[in-house]
């Protein structure tokens, strides 16, 4: 019941943000209502941790910080989905939308991997640190992207500042880095396979998004693409890489 109330309250907030941003809440902001559910789950986890007995280890504190970082990331998604700009250019095709959705949600399948999380203190601490670094970088990237953010490969604006000076797709870099933390926490061949598939889908999304951006910004984007690497800072294998 608490989870349902949290989700409903967050959905109402997203609806209001969409109205204030002069967007159509029922059509333009639908992803916000979807991401409000995992946000509600993370908020519930944070509340449970805060109301639990005193944190007794560094790992307990790291887990709490990781929960707060994940909730912050999801909250930013909800806000941006509610207030994002309109698409400038063609809409994504059905197959492109499917790639984006799979790349977004496939990592949630890790929860169904048939194994217990690692009990090694070293693994758990390393997992928390890696996840915090990745999530923090993704939050910075999302905040910089602002209202140009979207889940599908569609152009809503061109952002070149902040983490976008380091790589062309910093949100995906942060997400993949954070996903490495899952592998450390749940070391299993199935987790590794899911991580590789997730990374492959994210790379595929970069290809689709760059086509949309190059079409929408035919003068600016090729220059930017030639100067800044795709996903690995400092690695410019080729003008298109």
The total beta strand count reads: 0
What is the 3D shape? globular
Low-confidence residue ranges: none
As an assembly, this protein is single chain
- Average per-residue pLDDT, rounded, comes to 89
CATH fold group of the largest domain: Four Helix Bundle (Hemerythrin (Met), subunit A)
Reading the helices and strands in chain order gives HHHHHHHH
Residue fraction in strands: under 5%
Would you kindly provide a written description of the structure presented here, covering whatever features stand out?
- With 241 residues, the chain is mainly α.
- The protein contains 8 helices and no strands.
- α1 packs across α2 (30-51), α3 (58-83) packs parallel to α5 and α6 (170-185) packs antiparallel against α7.
- The N and C termini lie far apart (48 Å).
Any key phrases for this structure?
241 residues, 2 domains, Four Helix Bundle (Hemerythrin (Met), subunit A), globular, mainly alpha, 65% helix, single chain
In short:
The protein is mainly alpha-helical and 241 residues long.
How is this fold's topology laid out?
Blueprint: H1 2-20, H2 30-51, H3 58-83, H4 94-105, H5 121-145, H6 170-185, H7 189-216, H8 220-227
